[in-house]
Design a protein that fits this description.
The protein has 370 residues and is α+β, with helices and mostly antiparallel strands. The chain has 2 domains: 110 residues, Phosphorylase Kinase, domain 1; 235 residues, Aminoglycoside phosphotransferase (APH), C-terminal lobe (Aminoglycoside 3'-phosphotransferase, Chain: A, domain 2, Alpha-Beta Complex). Helices cover 45% and strands 13% of the residues. It has 12 helices and 11 strands. Strands 1, 2, 3, 4, 5 and 6 form a 6-stranded antiparallel sheet that branches. The protein has a 3-stranded antiparallel sheet with strand order 7-9-10, covered by helices on one side. The longest helix is centred in the C-terminal third of the chain and has 29 residues. It is globular and about 55 Å long. The N and C termini lie far apart (56 Å). The relative contact order is 0.13. The structure holds 2-acetamido-2-deoxy-1-O-phosphono-alpha-D-glucopyranose and magnesium ion. The site of magnesium ion has 5 residues, from loops.
Length: 370
């Protein structure tokens, strides 16, 4: 079957069962169905009979992740490290991070001549949310702070960049400018006002890259996609179990992860709803308090002070990325309707404007935390 332009494909259940047969799962497959709501990879839930776990099967989009083996190697290292730390603390080693399932010949992923596939164990009794209460937001903040802290002593070299320049704002702006210049989908006229608004902010939004190059802001190992629905909670207790979707774990700045969470969880509206967009300061305060507590003492004063700026930066970056994809004719993100990327970009821009209005109080709140 041909791949869609954004790399998504439909597969029959018998094809998917054939893929699963290459992986070292326990039990017999009872069914395979679509699962989750990512915009990049295709995800399935694999049910099994017997006492073993169910599984998650993913077709990794290799138009986005050119080196899937690198992605899998990063994930293996990060999960092993987190599992060791959790076990040492007496935590639930089976549910504190992902458990990748190797192929029967011991590889971390499978190439079937056309697509790249991987599997993990499904974490039983877990759920995720699109909207959080303040108490869930505080728990999540603590989990992300702890995630960063645990990865400060990952042994060996830093994980490789699975998408080169993923959060490089200067690169994202060059991509937008090129998309506007090429105007492949003939959509530039419709969005010229938005492009101008983004250009007016370009100078201040590329400040982080300059601070990084000057050695003032340390690079850490970050998650890279801290969307609210990438956190799993225990469905019973409401405690955070783990952070999932580790494809973009790589060197970066902590403000990016903090900011992407602010972008997704502190927004009153959905990611693609321009009318509903707006900052929920109660969620922000709860998350920020949890994050600073979970991070403990590894943050430098500048890293800490720039956390709210991360919210503005990641929302700006996402506005730019959705708009770039719209101008290119919807080749990157899966879309659910023709103008979806435009709605997404407008919604992110509306949120950005509201974050700009709230950044003073956000900074004051962080400064006031012990
Ligand atoms: C993509 O596929 P998903 O939903 O995990 C994207 C993120 C964006 C997000 C916006 C590799 O994540 O960077 O923030 O959509 N992932 C990649 O919803 O580009
Ligand atoms: Mg993702």
């Amino acid at each position: 079957m041909p791949a869609g332009r954004n790399g998504s494909m439909e597969h029959s259940e018998s094809k998917l069962r054939g893929v699963v047969s290459h992986f070292a799962i326990r039990g017999a497959v009872s069914g395979v169905e679509r699962f989750g709501n990512g915009w990049i990879n295709d995800t399935y839930r694999v049910g099994t009979s017997g006492s073993g776990p169910d599984y998650v099967l993913q077709r990794v989009n290799h138009l986005v992740f050119a080196d899937v083996e690198l992605v899998q190697e990063n994930i293996r290292r990060v999960c092993d490290h987190i599992r060791r730390k959790c076990a040492a603390r007496g935590g639930d080693a089976a549910r504190c991070t992902l458990t990748p399932v190797p192929t029967r010949d011991g590889r971390l992923c499978l190439f079937d001549g056309e697509s790249w596939w991987r599997m993990t164990e499904l974490i039983a009794g877990a759920c995720s949310y699109e909207q959080l209460t303040p108490s869930l937001a505080c728990n999540t903040g603590r989990a992300f702070g702890d995630f960063h802290r645990m990865l400060t002593d990952l042994p060996g070299d830093p994980p490789g960049e699975t998408i080169p320049g993923f959060h490089d704002m200067e690169l994202r702006l060059r991509q937008l400018r090129q998309a506007a210049e090429e105007n492949r989908a003939g959509r530039l006229e419709r969005v010229r006002g938005l492009v101008d608004e983004l250009e007016r902010r370009a100078e201040s939004m590329t400040e982080v890259g300059r601070l990084g190059r000057a050695g003032e802001l340390p690079r850490r190992i970050v998650h890279g996609d801290t969307k609210v629905n990438n956190v799993l909670f225990d469905a019973g207790s409401g405690e955070v179990l783990c952070v999932i979707d580790l494809d973009t774990v790589m060197p970066g700045y902590v403000l990016e992860d903090f900011g992407d969470f602010v972008r997704s969880a502190c927004n009153r509206g959905a990611e693609d709803d321009p009318e509903g967009a707006g900052v929920d300061m109660e969620i922000f305060r709860a998350f920020a308090r949890g994050y600073v507590e979970g991070a403990g003492d590894f943050l430098t004063p500048l890293e800490r002070a720039l956390l709210p700026f991360g919210g503005r930066l990641l929302t700006y970056m996402q506005t730019v990325r959705f708009l770039t994809d719209y101008l290119q004719g919807d080749t990157y993100y899966k879309i659910l309707r023709p103008e979806h990327n435009l709605d997404r970009s407008r919604a992110q821009f509306a949120l950005l404007c509201d974050i700009e209005r709230h950044e003073g109080p956000m900074n004051d709140f962080i400064a006031g935390l012990r």
